[in-house]
Write a structure and sequence with these properties.
Helices cover 43% and strands 23% of the residues. With 312 residues, the protein is an alpha/beta fold.
Length: 312
């Protein structure tokens, strides 16, 4: 027998394909018939007809049941893809008749959620009440991994050195910048800009993943970064700066105006001080209508006015 593609397309219905896939999963035609609510004899006849139309044996019969032949495994894989596409089609068409609905898991970091995403996600929820948002706060590298592994539908992250983007597709979101935060009475507060080399002699306070960026920047200068303080939040880092324990580097968007009585923000003249923020989705997987609506909303939202948040 030889595979006959034309006969397969013209004569096989979706129910028969579903029945075949169920038989592969159940490893018994009888159990597949029960699951699909048809007579066992009818199920057997449908699968036999499918094999005849395909022109190749798809199931190997044994005393204990059935198992897919190599050709049957190929067919089962493509049937799963067909039904996955049909589910996507149903969801997209339903968006026209029912409005956008569904659940979207968003992964991002605090330094992006606090100044940008929280407000924009709230606006999206008001515009799309049928979409349930699940928000996960993760470290920057974990955001990309969560999206690539299907644990999050949309990730919003800052581009970083050595961050593996092989498993995701990216789209532009926005940019902001990192600045040096120093006590108002510090000598560096009078400067219009500073370099990382200028900060190295100071007690440089890192927040979370920023330690790796500091270590890499120090290594490029032939030095070693040995932090005395390593903290988990911008609020704690700035409180230490206010108390005179050192200096820190933070996204400018996180600095509220009320802080500038006690600290100064100084431009950082480093290429990595420009923070590029991207939106990530899983490579090779079409986002749901709800996820696409969210991405469109995020990309169409103008940057907020110059106001920030400090604290946890």
């Amino acid at each position: 027998m030889t595979f006959n593609r034309v006969h397969l397309i013209r004569q096989v219905d979706l129910f028969t394909l579903r029945l075949f896939l169920t038989a592969v999963e159940e490893q018994q035609i009888g159990r597949a018939a029960i699951r699909e609510n048809i007579a066992a004899s009818t199920a057997t006849k449908r699968i036999q007809d499918l094999e005849e139309i395909a022109g190749i044996e798809l199931l190997e019969r044994t005393p204990k049941g059935v198992m897919a032949t190599p050709a049957g495994e190929v067919l089962a894989r493509h049937i799963r893809a067909i039904f996955g596409s049909l589910d996507d089609m149903r969801a997209e068409i339903a968006a026209f008749t029912e409005g956008v609905r569904g659940e979207v898991t968003v992964a991002s970091a605090r330094s992006i959620i606090a100044p940008f995403l929280a407000r924009e996600l709230a606006d999206f929820s008001r515009d799309f009440p049928g979409v349930d948002l699940v928000i996960r706060e993760l470290e920057n590298a974990d955001i990309v991994q969560a999206v690539a592994q299907g644990e999050a539908d949309v990730g919003v992250f800052a581009v970083a050195r050595d961050l593996d983007l092989g498993g995701v597709e990216t789209a532009d979101y926005r940019t902001d910048r990192l600045v040096a935060v120093v006590p108002r009475t510090h000598a560096l507060s009078a400067r219009s800009s500073v370099s990382f080399e200028d900060l190295m002699p100071e007690n440089l306070i890192a927040v979370g993943a920023m330690s790796a960026a500091f270590a890499a920047a120090a290594k490029r200068l032939g030095q070693e970064y040995k932090p005395k303080f390593s903290v988990r939040s911008t609020g704690v880092a700035i409180s230490l700066v206010q108390a005179g324990f050192g200096v820190t580097v933070q996204p400018e968007c996180l600095l509220g105006m009320e802080l500038f009585d006690s600290v100064a923000a100084v431009d950082l003249t480093e290429p990595w001080a420009k923070r590029v923020i991207l939106i990530a989705t899983a490579r090779g997987r079409t986002p749901s209508p709800a996820a696409r609506a969210l991405i469109k909303h995020l990309q169409g939202t103008p940057p907020p006015a110059s106001e920030g948040l400090a604290g946890d």
